[in-house]
Design a protein that fits this description.
heterodimer; A: alpha+beta; 4-stranded antiparallel β-sheet; 3 helices; 8 strands; 23% helix; flat; B: mainly alpha; two-stranded antiparallel sheet
């Protein structure tokens, strides 16, 4: 699906599989067919992101109101720089925090705080003006304490909760498309042949921009891996099973119907 | 921190505010003054729901009322043209007579009918179908009867229909207005000019109304059926139009058609039950397109809901149970486009599978009733049967399934929840 290569932690090579996954293959040919006559309408840009939190127990240094140091963040799924799409992120914290509305204007889009309570954080993503003028909301329940009640908390090993999702722009503007054409953080379908895009206009001064990707982030050692291959395999296996059951039942039904016909004809005589 | 650990409270979420709950004021212990203690106790010791009269109010004297007398007095009616004096009873308050005209005079309203001169008639209003006398007569009747054309038609000396009279009246009125107006623009907003009376349309309308009124019951039923049929066909057309827009251009590629059939095609096959999930899917896709930005998980949610809309709650639960049994996450952990698509396909296939299971049971029930030859014990609705078939039989042979069903049938249909009528509340309940 993506026409961009570059470093990705999870593999995207599955479109070549045939057989049990006809849909993804169809998805590709879908886009090919779409491309014939229509313009940008059928180009869908998707940005895979991971959002969540990492929480460290402070151990001896913990006080009653600050038992954990946590960081909430939104990062690219392959740790690429999201600043090309996202202008700023607003984290809405619990009202007991000072200035609960925290704005992060530049990547990496993360926020660190200390506290003791778990609550829902509303994350609002604001995009650049040529990307989308409507913000997008995400919700994440901050997790500080480990799932397993009996496991002891250690200051070395944090509690990590990450969720994978994709931001989808179904109808991107040409300017946006031009800008992100080869950016590793963005997934584009194959573009229609002969599509001429205007030259990309940089949204911000490149020299001022600091490194926005999270590859060397101090927390990156805790980042989780999201591979769609496992999930696809799982789904493919499940589908095969179900399809087998379906054909078995279909055979059964035709068998029974045949029997009925015989019974009917015999009783009629 | 340790104390919280000991108490096992550390799982608490954000701090609940430490307000002191103010206790409701203990009113019941204070006896209101005005009634004696024993009487108050009779009411149950609670203040009454309705505000009662304060005892001090009972001692006061009510305000002195107005003095009202009635007098037999003469009156005149401004609505009358003669000078008739009649008498009636009049309510006099504190020696003051009521003022004003006779109270019913204000209802004497009438319509302003225009009066044309003979010249105007000669110039604008001549008509081959109408004589001057008839027109004058018409206008006179209009004046008398306030444009109630049914009455006018009845009173009109020569027999003319209501439509003819209306037509003549309105065309005369229009001609006069146009003639008298300084410019045509002035009267352009007058209703008579703006929406002129259309004789033929009126006649047609009245004829149609009378036809509808006189339709027999049978005709009504037939009409309804035709309308329902037409609506269904229109909806089918709409649905196929929507898919054309939101689905792809079908290539001549046979492969694509076959695989494409898996998604929308299979639901186009004539089966009214399938029609609704089909349109739901297409319309969900369309509505997602309308959004400027959305999350993949949100889109998946919408599509799942769309496909669930045609199924009952039980079926949905069974689908989810099946997903779990197959080792698939109910919500994909890595929801990429491909994964979501696969997930949806899997759900659809599970639904198909469950439907087929129901079909098999139904067929077998039919078969067994054939064999038994008795119709005394109805096979039971398919719903009952699916309810009894809890676990999904992987790789079970057909015989076992039949045996299971027969066994269950022998026990009779599972009892449905008895609907108890709510017990009437008696005084002893309190």
């Amino acid at each position: 699906m993506p026409n961009t290569s570059s470093s990705k932690k999870h593999c995207q090579d599955q479109p070549q599989l045939s057989g049990p996954i006809p849909k993804s293959h169809m998805a590709k040919s879908e886009e090919n067919k779409k491309n014939s006559g229509k313009k940008l309408k059928d180009v869908e840009i998707s940005v895979p992101i991971v959002y969540g939190n990492i929480a460290f127990w402070l151990g001896k240094k913990a006080s009653e109101y600050q038992s954990h140091k946590w960081t909430i963040y939104v990062r690219g799924a392959s740790n690429e720089d999201l600043g090309v799409i996202i202008k700023r992120v607003v984290f809405q914290l619990h009202s007991s925090f000072n200035n609960p509305m925290r704005v992060v204007d530049a990547p990496p889009f993360e926020l660190s705080e200390a506290g003791w309570g778990e609550f829902e954080i509303a994350i609002t993503l604001y995009f650049h003006s040529d990307v989308c003028d409507k913000p997008l909301n995400l919700y994440h329940h901050l997790k500080l304490y480990p799932e397993d009640e009996n496991s002891s908390m250690s200051t070395k090993k944090p509690v990590v909760v990450e969720l994978y999702d994709e931001i989808v722009f179904p109808d991107p503007s040409e300017a946006f498309l031009a800008r992100v054409l080869n950016h590793p953080a963005v997934h584009l379908p194959r573009l229609p042949a002969g599509l001429t895009l205007p030259p990309p206009i940089p949204v911000e001064d490149a020299s001022k921009r600091r490194k926005g990707d999270t590859k060397d982030n101090p927390l990156s050692q805790w980042f989780l891996n999201f591979s769609e291959a496992d999930e696809l395999l799982q789904l493919a296996a499940a589908r095969q099973q179900v399809q087998a059951h379906i054909s078995k039942l279909k055979r059964q039904i035709s068998l029974i119907e045949g029997q009925h016909k015989q019974l009917k004809s015999s009783s009629d005589q | 921190m340790d104390a919280k650990d000991i108490l096992g409270l550390h799982k608490n979420s954000f701090p609940s505010s430490l307000e002191k709950k103010s206790r409701p004021p203990k009113e019941s212990h204070r006896k209101p003054d005005g009634i004696s203690r024993e009487v108050y106790a009779l009411t149950g010791g609670m203040p009454p729901l309705m505000p009662s009269i304060h005892s001090s109010q009972l001692k006061k004297k009510p305000p002195p009322p107005e003095k009202v007398t009635w007098q037999w007095l003469p009156f005149t009616n401004s609505a009358r043209k003669d000078d008739l004096h009649l008498y009636h009873w009049v309510r006099v308050v504190n020696g003051v007579l009521p003022t004003g005209d006779y109270s019913f005079a204000k209802y004497n309203k009438s319509v302003d009918i225009i009066k044309y001169t003979d010249e105007e008639y000669e110039k604008y209003l001549t008509d081959p179908m109408w004589t001057k006398e008839e027109t004058n007569e018409l206008f006179d009747l209009c004046e008398r009867f306030d444009l109630r054309f049914v009455v006018i038609a009845d009173r009109f000396p020569s027999s003319r229909t209501v439509e003819e009279l209306k037509d003549r009246y309105y065309s005369v009125l229009r001609a006069i207005l146009l003639a008298r107006a300084a410019s045509s623009g002035d009267v352009a907003t007058h209703p008579v000019i703006k929406d002129p009376y259309n004789v033929s349309q009126e006649m047609e309308r009245k004829r149609a109304l009378s036809m509808v009124l006189s339709q027999t019951r049978q005709q009504e039923k037939r009409d309804e059926e035709v309308l329902i049929e037409a609506k269904r066909i229109a909806e089918l057309r709409m649905a196929s139009k929507v898919t054309e827009q939101s689905q792809l251009v079908v290539a001549s590629n046979a492969d694509a058609e076959v695989t494409e059939g898996a998604v929308p095609g299979e639901t186009i096959t004539p089966s009214n039950v399938q029609l609704t999930p089909f349109t739901d899917n297409a319309s969900t896709l369309a509505s997602l397109r309308m959004l400027r930005v959305y999350l993949r998980t949100y889109a998946l949610d919408q599509m799942v809901q769309a496909s669930n809309s045609s199924a009952g709650v039980r079926t949905i639960k069974r689908v989810e149970q099946t997903l779990q049994d197959l080792g698939v996450n109910l919500k994909p952990r890595v929801p990429t486009k491909a994964v979501c698509a696969e997930h949806l396909e899997l759900r659809k296939e599970i639904l198909t599978w469950l439907n087929l299971q129901k079909q098999v049971q139904y067929k077998e029930a039919e078969g067994s009733s054939f064999r038994d030859g008795s119709y005394s014990e109805p096979p039971g609705t398919p719903k009952d049967r699916t309810f009894t078939l809890d676990s999904i039989n992987f790789g079970v042979s057909s015989e076992r399934v039949v045996k299971k069903d027969q066994k269950r049938k022998a026990h009779g249909t599972p009892p449905t929840a008895a609907h108890k009528r709510p017990r009437k509340q008696k005084a002893s309940d309190f």
